[in-house]
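FORM 12-B: Structure-to-Sequence Request
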């Protein structure tokens, strides 16, 4: 029998306790041992919870219990979560986490500490929620040089864009619903401004290209400026709008960014709707693999964290620590990447064709038009588009 502790008892923590109980036998088989919930660290009252007798308010109770082998950190943020993760590792306990902010900013340091102390540090649930993504990337695709990873990495924004597209809802209405369903973070800014997707992109890039990127250096644009007319024009152009996190290998290093994109309706990612996430990985041997599934939510994220607990127990004598790269490396400028662009402008067809002769502008219910350019980098686009009254310009996934 091996004891584990859950730090934080919000949406994911509660889901984790449920999944661990529901799948007790299967998880024991995966772990090679019975798993027993030792403690739940939570400050708020739990007197009406079935797990009330597990509650502790002081982390040192967990830290000082030698029977606790694994700590599941599902608090979020980088304050207490960072402090407790460090202390757990220093006390010889494996740490598993779904906290992308912590992994993206302090993961390298925590992984090094775990290595030093002979324990596992796993964070499968930090990217793509319930989608098995990081283990396949690091293990099943070990025979590949990873050239590119890109995908829909935030469930809240995908839910919002889908609702705007399919139901004609406005941004605020769709966001409110996403919060009611428990997809959006307590403060939705990180979701809608692309920060959450940026952290996940950083983790994917770290694991793909061998450089540990600072998410603060990854150019990030969220979806707050996506208007209903963009979805209308995108449809008329045979596309839809998705927020993509993209990272690609370059000659001297890598390039990473998060931006709204137009996706042709023929592309697999165009049909990934609602809270679903999808991540494409391009490998030198395998070609392109796309993994898709629920990217947020109580039980999907708990599914990934629970499996990490089982793996940490199974690997007590052979710790599992994914490679998050090394510090440094060149992050190439985003603007130098040449792609086709979607442009929305208040312009007549002749004006558009005078600047972008290849464009076939379409018009929606406003006076604005939308068109797709040939492939060019951002400075070239900006130089040409300056002659028009442009309202939006995003990349098109080619
Ligand atoms: N708020 C996140 C999302 C939760 O919407 O994807 C999962 O990381």
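FORM 12-B RESPONSE
SEQUENCE OUT:
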């Amino acid at each position: 029998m091996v004891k584990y502790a859950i730090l934080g008892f919000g949406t994911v923590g509660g889901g984790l306790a449920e999944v661990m109980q529901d799948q007790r036998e299967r998880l024991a088989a995966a772990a090679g041992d019975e798993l027993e919930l030792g403690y739940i660290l939570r400050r708020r009252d739990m007197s009406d919870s079935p797990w009330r007798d597990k509650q502790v308010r002081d982390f040192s109770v967990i830290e000082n219990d030698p029977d606790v082998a694994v700590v599941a950190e599902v608090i979020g943020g980088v304050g207490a979560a960072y402090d407790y993760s460090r202390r757990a590792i220093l006390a010889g306990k494996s740490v598993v986490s779904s906290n992308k902010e912590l992994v993206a900013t302090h993961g390298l340091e925590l992984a090094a500490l775990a290595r030093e102390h002979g324990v596992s540090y796993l964070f499968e649930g930090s990217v793509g929620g319930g989608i098995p993504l990081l283990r396949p990337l690091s293990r099943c695709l070990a025979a590949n040089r990873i050239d590119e990873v890109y995908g829909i990495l935030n469930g809240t924004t995908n839910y919002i864009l889908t609702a705007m597209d399919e139901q004609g809802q406005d941004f605020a209405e769709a966001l409110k619903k996403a919060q009611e369903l428990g997809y959006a973070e307590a403060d939705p800014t990180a979701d809608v401004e692309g920060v959450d997707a940026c952290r996940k992109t950083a983790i994917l890039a770290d694991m793909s290209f061998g450089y540990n990127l600072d998410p603060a250096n990854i150019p990030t644009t969220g979806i707050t400026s996506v208007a209903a007319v963009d979805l209308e024009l995108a449809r008329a152009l045979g596309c839809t709008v998705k927020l993509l996190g993209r990272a690609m290998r370059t000659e001297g290093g890598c390039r990473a960014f998060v931006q709204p994109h137009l996706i042709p309706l023929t592309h697999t990612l165009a049909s990934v709707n609602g809270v679903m996430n999808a991540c494409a990985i391009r490998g030198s041997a395998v070609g392109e693999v796309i993994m898709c599934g629920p990217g947020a939510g109580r039980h999907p994220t708990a599914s990934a964290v629970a499996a990490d607990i089982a793996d940490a127990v199974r690997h007590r004598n052979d710790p599992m620590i994914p490679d998050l790269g090394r510090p440094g490396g060149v992050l190439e400028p985003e603007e130098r990447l040449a792609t086709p662009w979607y442009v929305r402008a208040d312009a007549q067809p002749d004006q558009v064709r005078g600047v972008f002769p290849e464009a076939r502008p379409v018009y929606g219910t406003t006076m604005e038009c939308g068109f797709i350019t040939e492939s060019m980098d951002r400075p070239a686009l900006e130089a040409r588009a300056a002659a028009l009254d442009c309202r939006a310009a995003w990349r098109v996934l080619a």
